[in-house]
């Protein structure tokens, strides 16, 4: 597939925007999930700025593609995008996590235009996405439902309930993306409790499996486009995106403890500088 | 094969068995209240984009009858209850109207967090039908009993909790709540509850039904114990007690006025429920009486914070005094204890 260089540059630039905005917003909350968001920055940027068929100004349009954050703790990376797309006011974004603000660590669909479903409890959103994809069949609509899952989230039993049902019914309108950054809260996912052989697990449940480098923008964009545009698919699809937790900030990439944290102002300046260098 | 044909047990050669043998589909003829549930939902589907989900229980809850009418709107989820509840949430966002039915023990207890987080917090109009509630499962044991579901469901914000007394009232309640914009938990028995209500009975959401008033005692009940409570009132009346009965079918939102009226007109109030006395109907009534400063003595009758014995359901109702003579005896002993003070 021919990929326009301008598209790739744009997605790369928006991934950088997601990372810097994540640092800025967490400086307001004084605690947050930097590294979980950095690992999926290219995925989020590709989805919102290329893949998803959204309707400007109509965050609830019935024919829009849906995007669900199974790993809701990376919502801090989505809010700036929603503001950028015009769904959220800038003042609301800048009040992130402050008393009464709609934007919390985990997304709330009843409060935030553009959030397609609330999350925070791991394992739920693949089932919810399955429900949306089945709803598309029931209502005769052609939208796709994309669900971003964490790799630690693969521990959840409900993931495999949903995977089994989606595989059984061949729900091709459902696409899961696993942010395989290798780490959960307590350490390496596969040391905590292994999720391997991950691709084989999904295949065994009746899914088409694609494995990519989740920071290779060309690979992410082209894989997502192929899944979106191939209307002949008959099975649900999963993209296992191999990523680096904390991608873009050296000390975060090396230390799983940054799953949750806060940067003091002097370190924050260094992080902005490093992100600028590596953009 | 039609429903009627499937209800007949057949031997290896396909000929109908003429003995007393039975099999799963034929069970529905003896618990036809649940078969009615499937038909009521089927009728509702004529007016609404109803989608029905069940976790491998269509032959247990009668939704098989719905599938017969609307195969394209029936979603078999297999034995994945938690997944099923979250799927219903996703479906509801696309404009269809999901109805989920499963044993109360698994729906309200196993899926409590999915219900809270994916349906109630998110304000989605999903209907939850918990059937075989209380101890109606008898000797299947505690895993299949649900004597905690009312307490759990009524503590979930945005949730409405309704316990119809019989399959007829269930049908009326389904209709009455058809356009409710938030989730509703319906608590049903096993479909063999004796009929209390006529087909044309009134059902107003959140409004208790006053069957009778009595100056000595008011019995407040609802759901699976209402029929026995009404019969117990007859026994008490025959013994000279002036008894009233209120059907508090909707535990949340609770009909405060009906409770206050009952307490105002009676010297005593006793609640009757097939549920733990902690946090259920009795607890809900106690909250209203206490908050309103009504000093009327209240006795909460039900399962007293314990797990049920094993036994056939009717024997359990007898043991736990949830049949008519038991409820009457419980009331009489309570009244006697009070006057002996």
UniProtKB/TrEMBL annotation, chain A:
What this protein needs as a cofactor is: thiamine diphosphate
**Transketolase N-terminal domain segment(s):** 15-253
Which residue ranges does UniProt annotate as crossing the membrane?
none
What is the top-level taxon of the source organism? Bacteria
Keyword check for Repeat = no
InterPro entries annotated for this entry? THDP-binding (IPR029061), Transketolase_N (IPR005474)
**Alphabetical UniProt keywords:** Thiamine pyrophosphate
Q: Which Pfam families match?
A: Transketolase_N
What does the similarity note say?
A: Belongs to the transketolase family.
Q: What is this protein called?
A: Transketolase
Species whose genome carries this gene: Cryptosporangium japonicum
Automatic annotation (TrEMBL), chain B:
What is the scientific name of the source organism? Cryptosporangium japonicum
Q: Enumerate the residue ranges of region (Disordered).
A: 1-22
Q: Which residues form the Transketolase-like pyrimidine-binding domain?
A: 24-195
This protein is called Transketolase family protein
InterPro entries attached to this UniProt entry: PDH/Transketolase (IPR051157), THDP-binding (IPR029061), Transketo_C/PFOR_II (IPR009014), Transketolase-like_Pyr-bd (IPR005475), Transketolase_C (IPR033248)
Task: Return any one Pfam family short name.
Answer: Transketolase_C
Supply the Gene3D superfamilies for this chain: 3.40.50.920, 3.40.50.970
- Determine the domain of life of the protein's source: Bacteria
